[in-house]
Structures are given as C-alpha cells and as structure tokens.
Amino acid sequence: MLSIDRRTPQGAWELRALGQGELLVCIIVPQPVIAASLLTKKYKEFAAVDGISFEVEPGESFGLLGPNGAGKSTTMRMVGAVSTRTSGSLSILGLDPNDHGPEIRAQLGVVPQQDNLDMDLRVRDNLIVYGRYFGMSLSSCAAKAEELLEFAQLADRKKSKVGDLSGGMKRRLTIARSLMNDPKVLLLDEPTTGLDPQARHILWDRLFRLKEQGTTLLLTTHYMDEAEQLCDRLVVVDKGAIMAEGAPADLIRSYSTREVVELRFGSELNASVAEQLVGIGDRVEVLPDRILIYTDDGDGDLGWIVAKGLTPITSLVRRSSLEDVFLRLTGRSLIE
Ligand SMILES: Nc1ncnc2c1ncn2[C@@H]1O[C@H](COP(=O)(O)OP(=O)(O)OP(=O)(O)O)[C@@H](O)[C@H]1O
Ligand SMILES: [Mg+2]
Q1: 89 CA to middle of ligand 1, Å?
Q2: For 83-92, 195-204, 243-252, which range has the lowest pLDDT when averaged over its residues?
Q3: Domains, the chain, ranges and CATH?
Q4: Radius of gyration for the chain, computed over Cα atoms and rounded to the nearest angstrom
Q5: 187 falls in which pLDDT band (50, 70, 90)?
Q6: Is there an atom of ligand 1 within 6 Å of 185 CB?
Q7: Count of CB atoms within 10 A of residue 134's CB?
Q8: Which residue's C-alpha comes closest to atom 6 of ligand 1?
Q9: Given Cys at both, which of 1, 7, 31, 59 links 12, Cβ 3.0 to 4.6 Å?
Q10: Window from 4-13, 232-241, 248-257 with minimum mean pLDDT
Q11: Strand 61-65 to strand 216-221: parallel, antiparallel, or no bridges (unpaired)?
Q12: Which atom of ligand 1 is least distant from the CA of 67?
C-alpha cells in the first residue's frame, strides 16, 4: 500500500492509496501545546484570573502582556502545574494538570519571576543539581551543563558563586537551568524585568535562538517592546481578564493609529493646552506628564501645532506601540 506522509511544524497530512483507485487523505491537525478555557483562579472572593481563554500552538512564542497585578504570574503558576485552578479547563501538552502534574512538570522549563537559584552552590553546580532532580545521570548532567553554560554565555563563570553574578547573568543562569531537561515548552515570567538594556538584548537573543530551535515559549511581560520583539501572538491582560488578542502588529493596527505625537508642555499646562487641540488627529489623550495625539500624519500635525503658536517643551513623533493599544483598551498606562 502506498503511503505519503508530510509533517511540518504547522501540521501534517498523510495520503494513502487503498487500491482500486481509492485514496485516503488524513489531515493531522496539531494539538495546541497549551489550551486554557475560562480559566479562573480565586483567592477567597477575589478573582486574580477571571475566565481567560487562549491557545498556544507548537513552536509559537505567546505572550501575556499586562500591568502589575494583572494575573500574569498566577496564570503561569497554573500552566506550570504548581497551582490549582478554581474553575475552567486547562490542558498542557494534552494533559490536565489536575491529574498529571508530575508528567507535565517533567516536560516544562520554568523561569519564575524571582530567580530562585541555589546561592550556596556554584554556577555549574546549580545546573547539575537541577538536572539530577529530573533523574538525569551525572555524566549527562555534566555534558548538558557545559552546553548550556556556552548557550547562556556563562562558561567563563562556571565556578563563580551565584551571589557574585550580575542580575542579567543570574537571569541567564535561571534560563540555562530551565533547559536542563530539554523542555518542550518554556515558561518565562518577566524574563528581563530589572535588567539594563544591554542585558535585556542579550537575553532576547538567547530566547530568539530557542524559538528558532522550535521551543514553544509562553512569556509574561509588562514591557511593550519585549512583547513586540519576542511574541508571535499575545493577549493583553488587565485585572485578570483578556482585553485583546493578536499578533503585535495586528493589535497596533486595530487599536491605534500609524503615528503618535507626544507633547510636553509642563504638568500644570498639559490639560489646558489639550483643549486647544480638539479636532486634531484621530484622538487626543491627556496623561499627567504628556499629551498624546493619535494620527496618521505626525509631522503634519506637529507643524500645525507650532504654526498655531503653541510651544511644547519637548515634542516627539513616533510610531504606535502596544503601550498605545493598552491605553486605548483600558484608559491607563501600561507602566505605572
Ligand atoms: N497567594 C495569593 N493570595 C492572595 N492574592 C494573591 C495571591 N497571589 C496573587 N494574588 C493577587 O492576585 C493578583 C494577581 O497577581 P499576579 O502576581 O498574578 O499579578 P502579575 O500580573 O504577575 O503582576 P506583576 O506584574 O506585578 O508580577 C494581585 O492582585 C495579587 O495581589
Ligand atoms: Mg508577576
């Protein structure tokens, strides 16, 4: 019997000749790696996660973008099978964490919001001890640790005490540690919070490489640039609920204009000047420290403002970002 089988990261199909001119075409639809439906977590009466639904496909990099207290870490803990849900359904790699916690955890890599490295152990030993938890032999732990120290650009620090590492190095070590068990899915809770721009870029580069190798990434962030750089798709979350879902560029197209003019007239004056800007652009937002004009022609609008005799202390024309999407959806700024 003839059988042709084609598999791609997006899906697969199989063609079988059954004989007598009969062909059977089987389309194999990939199962989502993570599927949450009306997922809810309550602490007493307070819903930290309030009925969120999303699916993450194999090889995808999916983000939860939201401000402090949005429920990102609470969601990550449920996905990581270390916290039980109050209601809704959740499937990780096709398994329900209520029934299959250990099997799920064995296949995940987890980078928690707070580094929880073992400060008493040296850099390399942190990796080896972690690998042993997964039942790996000492020799395979040692080989994997060498590989991951190279990957995390920490090979020259392998004998250092963890306490002597910089914040960015500790974060890279936590990521290296999360990869010891060759996880199919990597959960990253605020991977770069608190790091300087250079350290963030090094980390982004490492995460890109993992994505290129086909690792599925679920990450949380409240940095819009991080979400734009790393996520194929994301959900904007606020107060435990999903406000919007899509690819970063699609969200920006749907919820904002092409450009934004940012003007600062001084905190005392922004509100009164804004009254003179009625009718300009698509929309004007007045924040405590600046005025934002949503428009498709930033330079043209800025020229009009200056011609009107208004003299901002600073002015900037920029393209719209996910920050603008968040502001549009919630009326609040993402970074408080
Ligand atoms: N164990 C707990 N008991 C009671 N309330 C909790 C608990 N854990 C989290 N919360 C509350 O749930 C809400 C969501 O918290 P969570 O840590 O998930 O937010 P987050 O989006 O990760 O925020 P951040 O960006 O600050 O990390 C917050 O109001 C928090 O105070
Ligand atoms: Mg958090």
Answers
A1: 20
A2: 195-204
A3: 1-30 (no CATH), 34-252 (3.40.50.300), 257-319 (3.30.70)
A4: 24
A5: very high
A6: no
A7: 14
A8: 43
A9: 7
A10: 4-13
A11: parallel
A12: 25
